[in-house]
Design a protein that fits this description.
Elements: E1 2-7, H1 17-25, E2 28-36, H2 37-42, H3 47-66, E3 72-76, H4 78-89, E4 93-97, H5 102-109, E5 117-121, H6 143-152, H7 177-180, H8 195-209, H9 213-216, H10 229-234, H11 239-252, H12 259-280, H13 305-313, H14 319-331, H15 336-349, H16 354-364, H17 370-380, H18 396-403, H19 408-413, H20 422-425, H21 433-439, H22 454-469
Parallel strand pairs: 1-2, 1-4, 2-3, 4-5
Helix pairs in contact: 6-12, 12-17, 14-15, 15-17, 16-17
Bound molecules: flavin-adenine dinucleotide.
């Protein structure tokens, strides 16, 4: 009996649930991947994410080949390509891992029409939407309660696939980035090591940092987080694998304070929390979760053209915000603290439409994940579940002073402020002409004046939210 394992975003062999389960029951397996034309036509994609995906896919194929197996690639419509291979190879069963975005769930409904037995598995999350529910059986909308159960429940462990062989089948080429329509933007620096090996290395390197994660994670200038997000996105490492690895680290050092590890594991719970939110409330991809705020009129990027451009270019005149936006542009990644600060700024200082921000982030983030992104944006915009209250507005200066006290992060990403001393780095507009000359920066020319009056905008935005509530 031949099985097809349709791989999508779990780009690894180890602990790939669909593959593991298929290998328990079949000697012959066709690992199958379709470069989904429909997705490429529709999604907001960008260079960092597509390159990360492509290199991870390529590495998986090479790794399987080096073991005498293969990953069979086809380009086009996934259902058509599946129909074809099922017919060509008289396959008996199709296995795949479930995905939870609105696009994937719609696409996956179509496999029911295929002429063979189909089985799908939980793989990309620790717990699925019906596994953690309130005592009355409804989805959790408040993270803390969800998290408490997430920690209490027994978690699945990673598994290795059993021996299997792959029949000799012609495979198509993975299209080049150029053929897919992506070229490296001039400003981008490639800092990623995609694929399984890159993921394992990241995890290993993080081992030293995890102990202080609870204390360090918010400090943008410290490279203190795991940067595993694109690996978790593309499944080059599994969520079970990283969780249990951190448990092992804890067990190896029983006398050490494990609060850094626990705080990091809480992030995995956030990830699951947002997955179940999007799965339970798919409309949140396009609408505010809080109905009272659905009719707010945001400024579209066309309407707010100049502000929009200055915001995405990191030229708002608020150094911490600008540093975040420039880190994103350069690397395809932004520190979580900055994701919160810039998003709050886009909302409460610039009143930009969150859907435009979502499209921009989707293009720019190497780790763009619809559920976490919608969760994060709606949190900062005060329109989602368990969000920042609308009257609590991040102050872009004090956020910088607190999380980048000596301005190291700012200096790294906003080099024109390189020589501005610590006491002025967060508000360089306050320095006089002579100081500007001394520090080699002319405010208004080399670095802009603030794009808005923050105190005024804070007031206005609170009023707008209050009006929307009436
Ligand atoms: C506006 C906004 C947009 C975001 N968009 C994304 C996105 O597109 N993709 C994405 O993976 N994360 C997103 N996040 C969550 C978070 O910022 C990133 O997961 C994190 O910065 C990735 O860096 P890391 O791997 O070093 O994280 P670590 O701090 O090492 O955390 C470990 C892992 O936990 C998960 N995680 C951490 N924080 C969160 C969180 N707040 N919500 C959900 N999962 C989390 C990620 O998978 C991350 O890799 C967003 C947050 C905000 C505020």
């Amino acid at each position: 009996m031949t099985a097809i394992v349709w791989l999508r975003r779990s780009l690894r062999e180890y602990d790939n649930t669909a593959l593991v389960e298929a290998s328990k029951r079949h000697d012959e397996i066709i690992p199958f991947y379709v470069v989904d034309k429909n997705y490429f036509d529709k999604a907001e994609l960008g260079y960092p994410r597509v390159r990360f995906w492509r290199e991870s896919l390529k590495e998986l194929k090479q790794s399987l080949k080096s073991q005498g197996k293969d990953l069979v690639i086809r380009n086009g419509d996934p259902i058509e390509k599946l129909e074809k291979i099922i017919e060509e190879k008289s396959a008996d069963k199709l296995y795949f891992n479930r995905d939870y975005s609105p696009y994937s769930t719609e696409r996956d409904k179509e496999v029911r029409g295929l002429d063979l037995e189909v089985e799908s598995f939980k793989d990309i999350v620790m717990f699925e939407k019906e596994e953690i529910l309130t005592n009355s059986g409804t989805p959790y909308k408040v993270y803390t309660y969800y998290k408490n159960k997430w920690f209490d429940y027994e978690k699945p462990r990673p598994q290795k696939p059993e021996e299997y062989s792959v029949p000799d089948i012609e495979s198509e080429k993975i299209p080049s980035l150029k053929n897919l329509g992506f070229e490296k933007p001039n400003q981008t620096e490639w800092i990623w090591n995609p694929g399984r090996e890159g993921g394992k290395q990241r995890l290993e390197e993080f081992e030293e940092k995890i102990w202080n994660y609870d204390e360090d994670r918010d400090y943008a200038w410290k490279d203190s987080t795991s940067k595993l997000s694109p690996h978790l996105k593309f499944g080059t490492v599994s969520v079970r694998e990283v969780f249990w690895e951190t448990e092992r680290i804890k067990a190896r050092n029983p006398d050490s304070d494990g609060s850094g590890i626990e705080t990091w594991q809480e992030e995995l719970a956030w990830r699951d929390f947002y997955f179940q939110m999007l799965w339970n409330f798919p409309e949140s991809g396009e609408k505010a979760l809080q109905k009272q705020f659905r009719d707010i009129e945001w400024r579209s990027k066309e309407e707010a053209e100049e502000d929009w451009e200055r915001f995405i270019e990191g030229r708002t005149g608020f150094p911490f915000v600008d540093a975040g936006m420039r880190q994103l542009k350069k690397t395809g990644w932004m520190h979580n603290r900055l994701r919160m600060v810039v998003t709050s700024f886009a909302c409460k200082d610039l009143w930009l439409d969150w859907r435009d921000l979502h499209d921009y982030f989707s293009k720019m983030f190497v780790d763009a994940e619809l559920s976490s992104m919608i969760g994060g944006i709606q949190w900062a915009y005060s329109i989602g579940t368990d969000s920042q209250p609308y009257f609590r507005v991040f102050n872009p200066w004090t956020q910088g002073e607190k999380y980048d006290p000596e301005g190291e992060y700012i200096r790294k990403w906003v080099p024109e402020l390189q020589d501005v001393p610590d006491e002025h780095i967060h508000r360089p507009q306050k320095i006089n002409k002579l100081q500007q000359e001394n520090y080699g920066v002319e405010i208004g020319k080399d670095y802009p004046d603030p794009i808005v009056d923050h105190d005024e905008m804070r007031q206005k935005s609170t009023e707008k939210f209050e009006q929307a509530r009436d």
